[in-house]
Amino acid sequence: KKINEFGETGPAFPNLERLWGGGSAVIDMENMDDTSGSSFEDMGEMHQRMKEEEEVTEEAAAAEDGEDGEFLGMKGIKGQLGRQVADEVWQAGKRQASKAFNLYANIDILRPYFDVEPVQVRNRLLESLIPVRMINFPQKVAGELYGPMMLVFTLVAILLHGMKTSGTVIREGTLMGTAIGTCFGYWLGVSSFIYFLAYLCNAQITMLQMLSLLGYGLFGHCVVLLVTYNVHFHSLFYILWLIIGGLSTIRMVAVLLSRTVGQTPRLILCGTLAALHMLFLLYLHFTYHKIVEGILDTLEGPNIPPIQRVARDVPVVSANLVNVTLKAVGLAS
């Protein structure tokens, strides 16, 4: 209600009273529910919550887009790095292949292994038959391949000469191929095997030094075979085998002894080398032993025992025939 200026009371909202049919409307503020405005508050909270959810969704989408961008960027970087690595590997392989292909045409690579004076080769050939005395410190080994390779080719020529003079027949292959395979096979094969044993026995020697040492050790074989292929006496062969072949073997054994530590490794390494080196010389000689004996029989004549007279019994019929013949001859005279 509303009090006017004359002290009279009247309706506070006459328009509402008019709309409601002129009746009075009294609102009890005390009985009014405190939660009457909660619907508006709920709407505001819902609106605020939806706004927050939209913001969270937008942030998540932005984060996903950022992660996708970063992932794509990392993927692009990884792809580019992979291409660069593959390119580098390809270029490195290409360079290695080019070097391997040009190795045969580049003589300068092999020049240090064959750069030696003839005087040095002569001295090393003589030294290969002189055993060293001092084994307390490592003996020097020549690191060149000119002398050893020339000795191997010389041994091939001597072996080929022995094959031709003995009349050797090779069914599969040629005499030259057999001689080259035998000599080079021994040189390379035994050198590799002894180097492997030296590695196991902790001997201080390289593959190049082993090739040089065994190659110069073939000088004794060349001398022995050159003499015994032309002078066919077994006693002479055994003497040269023990003296010249033994000296060259002792020389190599002494060098390995000076470069190996320990009794057992020395025994294994040096015993194996000595056995292989001496047996190879026996093999080269006695492979053609029977054919050489046949050549000796042809040149000196076979050992046929002298003809001896042997008493034999004469049959009775033959004796009677002889008597009749003698009588007929007597009557005729």
TrEMBL record:
Keywords associated with the record: Cell membrane, Cytoplasm, Differentiation, Glycoprotein, Golgi apparatus, Membrane, Transmembrane, Transmembrane helix
Topology relative to the membrane: Multi-pass membrane protein
Coiled coil: none
UniProt keyword Acetylation, yes or no: no
GO biological process: cell differentiation
Primary location: membrane
UniProt-annotated location(s): Cell membrane; Cytoplasm; Golgi apparatus, cis-Golgi network membrane
Membrane-spanning segments: 145-163, 175-198, 210-229, 235-255, 267-286
Keyword Ribosomal protein belongs to the record: no
Domain of life the protein comes from: Eukaryota
Annotated GO CC locations: Golgi apparatus; plasma membrane
PANTHER family on file: NATURAL KILLER CELL-SPECIFIC ANTIGEN KLIP1, PROTEIN YIPF3
Annotated family: Belongs to the YIP1 family.
General function of this protein: Involved in the maintenance of the Golgi structure. May play a role in hematopoiesis.
Full protein name: Protein YIPF3
